[in-house]
Automatic annotation (TrEMBL):
Function: Involved in the maturation of [NiFe] hydrogenases. Required for nickel insertion into the metal center of the hydrogenase.
Transmembrane stretches, start-end: none
Binding site residues for Zn(2+): 73, 76, 89, 92
Source organism of this protein record: Bradyrhizobium nanningense
Name this polypeptide is given: Hydrogenase maturation factor HypA
Keywords, in A-Z order: Metal-binding, Nickel, Zinc
Gene Ontology BP annotations: protein maturation
Record keyword Zinc present: yes
InterPro entries: HypA/HybF
Pfam name, any one: HypA
Keyword RNA-binding annotated: no
Gene Ontology molecular function: metallochaperone activity; nickel cation binding; zinc ion binding
Binding-site list for Ni(2+): 2
Amino acid sequence: MHEMAICLGIIQIVEEMIRERSSPRVRSVCLEMGALSHAAPEAIAFCFAAAATRTVAEGAALYIVELPGVAWCMSCSKSVEIARRGECCPCCGSYQLQVTAGEQMRVKELEID
């Protein structure tokens, strides 16, 4: 389950940010997650609680902001929203799409004590 590895990375980022601010605890973490990031939001939420055990993030709420996948259609020259790779263009039906957004995952915001 690669979501656990992702959550361990998130905890590492959170711990580094907390050290810089000399804060004792994290209340919440806001994570931006693209639809094409290859991770399931439900699995991330489940794994986060386990990964946070005995860390500064233990008990912290996790808020996931899901971002859409976006691709550029080479056939009709439009930027279109897609839910997953391999879909056709909703405007023209072409499969010549180049992903331009929606693969990202980042810690957007922390609420700390």
